[in-house]
Amino acid sequence: MAPLAVRVRPRTIDELVGQDEVLGQGSWLRAAIESDSLSSIILFGPAGTGKTTLARVIATTTKAHFTEVSAISGGVSDLRRVIDEASARLTHMGHKTILFVDEIHRFSRSQQDALLHAVEDRIVILIGATTENPAFEVNSALISRSRIIEFLALTNEAICAVIESALTSEYGLDGAFTLNDDALDAIVKMAGGDARVALTTLEMAADMAASKSMDSPVEPANDSGVDPIPIALADVMDAAPRTTLPYDKKGDMHYDVISAFIKSMRGSDPDAVSYWLARMLDGGEDPKFIARRIMIFASEDIGNADPQALLVAHAAFAAVERIGLPECRINLSQAAIYMALAPKSNAAIVAIDKALSEVSKGPLRQVPNHLRDRHRPGSENYGTYQYPHSEPSGYVEQQYLPDGLEKGSFYSPGQRGWEAYRTEQRNNDKSNKGSAG
To answer: How far are the Cα atoms of 47, 299, 302 from residue 348, in angstroms, in the given order?
Structure first.
């Protein structure tokens, strides 16, 4: 028997749930499908949201010839064969061809290039499906010839609707099982917006419940002689003891979660930092990648407001290299929480980026004579360099920037932590020097 997720796959647009924005009444995509006037599209979104299912619906409703090429096993020769057949079909019979490519991001550039002229000349109407952002993974020329349709992760309500339909559908469990509220909530939580995960979990939980029912048969409560088998929370937990949240180490989810992690450290929220760190570790993220981001953050967002932050980050990176998982999760947690609690300053990155911009775009500026190297003939004419260590304060007011640049052109000290303290001390030293003079 086919898996439950296959058996209850929607057969019409109306049976698809959770994508009302792109498939609702009045939408371009629905109108194009219903009028059989579809142009090339790329369906983009998380797994288990209905992209492949929609392609199957189109296959059963269109009058065009529908064909599919595997992005995993298919090669350029397969594509050329399909295109040649589509061209002959269009020339001799006037029939259009819809070509479905699931996981189109797995196609090489040469394979994607092989599609270009066929899509542009409408020899084939392309339906590409991908979980990766097409802007990064699909040939830009192919994107320009297609319409991008974004599918969103299914809401909890949509997942509930999918589960309830599977429980009653004649193609699914056909009323043979019931699901209590706790078990339903657990499946929804574990699904993480993925209908396929929800249905797989439901199927495994039903198998667990059926097995227990055979071991401990219960007298039927009605005349039919058959009562639905209850699926309890324990059955769900036995079938899938942990939540499987979506995470891709190279795709959009990877960038979204690391972005949330960094922004949470910047926003000084240690709870959020701990959560996003756990999401990455649970998803199999390379701990050295996380440690590198923490080390960058220590200078970019804390800097000299707390110079110890970089040392903590460096120590955490060294610990990750030497200890590894699972123990290095503790080192990462300590470092990340330290970053969240530390005073913040972005003065270091602002200063160097302004200076780099000046160097790359500004004029050539000469080193002031009194700062030049003295190990050459004629250096006695360079002017007097005042040695700061000769002063009680260790500070000398003299020109250090080249002509044409003023103090404050690049560095603007933060108002927190050690950086603010040292700025105040330096200003006091300057004031005292002036008063003494």
So the answer is: 41, 7, 9
Same domain, 259 and 233: no
Joined tokens for residue 329: 């999760």
Residue identified by tokens 């030049």 is 372
Q: Token pair of 174, please?
A: 């056909």
Q: Which residue's structure tokens are 């797989």? A: 200
Structure-block tokens of residue 64 = 């065009």
Q: For residue 254, give Cα distances in angstroms to 49, 136, 174, 197, 429.
A: 18, 14, 39, 20, 48
Domain co-membership, 52 together with 164 = no
Residue appearing with tokens 């209590």: 180
Strand partners, 178: 230
220: left (phi > 0), else alpha (psi -120 to 50), else beta? beta
- Which residues span the domain enclosing 217? 156-239
**What CATH number corresponds to the domain at position 31?**
3.40.50.300
- 288 plus 313 within the same structural domain: yes
Which of 96, 121, 150 is the C-terminal boundary of a domain? 150
Cα–chain-centroid distance for residue 424? 42
Cβ of 335: how many Cβ atoms within 10 Å?
28
pTM: 0.61
Q: Is the peptide bond preceding residue 46 cis, with omega within 30 degrees of 0?
A: no
- Return the DSSP state at 303: G
| Per-residue pLDDT in tens (0 to 9) along the chain, 437 residues | 799 999 999 999 999 999 999 999 999 999 999 999 999 999 998 888 999 999 999 999 999 999 998 877 777 888 899 999 999 999 999 999 999 999 898 888 888 888 999 999 999 999 999 988 888 788 888 999 999 999 988 999 999 999 999 999 999 999 999 999 999 999 998 888 899 999 999 999 999 999 887 765 544 444 455 689 999 999 999 887 666 566 665 666 778 899 999 999 999 999 999 999 999 998 888 899 999 999 999 999 999 999 999 999 999 999 999 988 899 999 999 999 999 999 999 999 999 999 999 999 999 999 999 999 888 888 888 888 989 998 888 888 889 999 999 988 999 888 888 888 888 877 776 666 555 55
Cβ count within 10 A of residue 83: 21
| Residue 256 neighbours by CB under 8 Å, 6+ apart | none
